[in-house]
# Entry
Amino acid sequence: MESIMKVLFFLSGFVIVWAMIGYPLSLNIIGKLYGNRKVLKDYSHQPNVTVMVVAHNEEKVIFKKLQNLLSLNYPKEKIDILVASDNSTDRTNEIVIKFIQEHPDREIRLCEIKARKGKTNAQNEAQKTVTTEYLVMTDANSIMDKESIKELMSAFTSDDIAYVSGRLSLINQASSDVSNAEASYWDSDVALREIEGRIQTITAGNGALYACRTKDYYDFNPIQCHDSAMPSLYALQGKRAIANHDAIAYEKAGEVIEDEFGRKVRMNRNLLKHILPDLRILNIYKYKWFPYFYFGHRTCRYLLWISHLIVLVSNILLIPESWFYMMTFLGQALFYSLAVVKVVTKNNNKLLTLVYYYCVTISAQWVGVFNILTGRAKPFWEKAETTR
# Structure
């Protein structure tokens, strides 16, 4: 029994440490070894594109989004704008229709999805109407930089590049300790994606801004999201998903913990499947760096919820064995206590906020797993109002 507890303790401890410290450090070292490898760009590559916006009850932001799309620095005759309205019941459709009427010189279409089945389903349905060679997808509450489409298209420099992710820039970092913590986490994650992309392929994109060839589009199950499913699909097809972080979309992070917690629960609605979505990922001879990237950046992070529980329980049972286990237990107790102090005191200390935010993230994974096991995981959700 003691031996089993030790194995569980060290194995779970490794998953936690590798996910949060080991993998980022190792990737930075690997990135320096590949320092001469950059994202190639060809700005003369300006094909016809469809910019798809999925919207469910986005009357607050859809007009501003459409105005933003008309201001992009890309040949207007080469841009189709497609709004996929996921069973909107507010004024979203009305606003889009009026906008279309006011801009007859632009190619703008509304695709009304009658049954609400979530963002991925709306993308699947709307994509069937796309005739352009490339498809750019963006969120209704994301404001795209004027050069964003030009940047995305410039990165499709070879046939093996199937997906290009832009960079999400959070504009309200200073608004609250919650948005500040999310922005800090996101900035560190973006740095990892940049290295993965220029070495071989990223393991996840972001829904605010990304592009693919229309012929490479895949109809995923609506419970899945493109952010996590698309890069893995293309990697297993022997293609590349890369990041061009000069293509930028601006967005607000959740400013209250309820909004950010809800967003993270939604992100984990398919967590169990993404721990190891395909056994082929383990084939290092065929997929080179991708198995290493996926294990460190995805598998270990998707296992944090259970790893923290196992390392705590096994640690408690091992305390009588030696002073080492007593010290590690006290360390864990102190860590969780810092999160409690943050809740009780509402102190904005950066360390307390980061610890608290991390614990919220782990809690959201647990809720996500609970929803999966109880059949409560859904492909749609109510948006976070503080991000609008």
